[in-house]
Amino acid sequence: MSDGSTFSAHSFSAHAWGRNLPTYEAIRTMPFNDALAAGTLSPEQFRHYMIQDAHYLIAFGRALAIAAGKADDPDGLVQFAEAAKVAVVVERSLHADFFESFGVSGDEFARTPMSPVCHHYSSFLIATAHAEPYPVALAALLPCFWIYAEIGRDILGRAVRPNPYDAWIDTYAGEEFHEAVRAVIATTDRAAAAASPGELTRMHAAYRHATQLEWMFWDSAWRLADWPV
Fold this sequence. Notes:
By secondary structure, this protein is mainly alpha-helical. The chain has one domain: Heme oxygenase-like (Heme Oxygenase, Chain A). It is built from eleven helices and no strands. The radius of gyration is 17 Å and the shape is globular. 40% of the residues are buried. The model is unreliable at 1-5 (pLDDT under 50).
């Protein structure tokens, strides 16, 4: 993590980050991200990643919209409704640029099903957003925001430039994205402060599972994973 200043010492986010630091370190040093920073990641691996990420963002947007509907104050409603819009409209626009650059047609995207990991992660987020209370839904959504921000900054600090993946690096290392992530962390901590002990336990379980799935998502792209049967 960059500096530890994102949260207070006794917040949910501080505990969740600390508990899952080994998994974050495994993500930070995994072959996919090392190769992306070095500019040596194959176009085929990046295309696999971008197609699956475009599928994932639709589900992520749906889960954010559900969380917005469960928000306990108007600020949260606006925050996560806007985040859902960004996930589906703005980030998909970025994906469209990548699709053009890396030769992915709209037909190819439509024909390509979710990978097993993408399907699992998408289903997990939507199910959690539907079935769990607001604080647990936020804990499940938080790793996607936070880990991308930290990985983006980490890769920016060691990336070979120019890099075929400069646009990806600049998006997730940029201050605009980090400002949004800090706001999600703050909202999650406020929700956790009012959560019951049982809800806090489920928050930590949801955060841990989503963090594990972040590793699995990148690993899946590295291996060009598909359905085995």
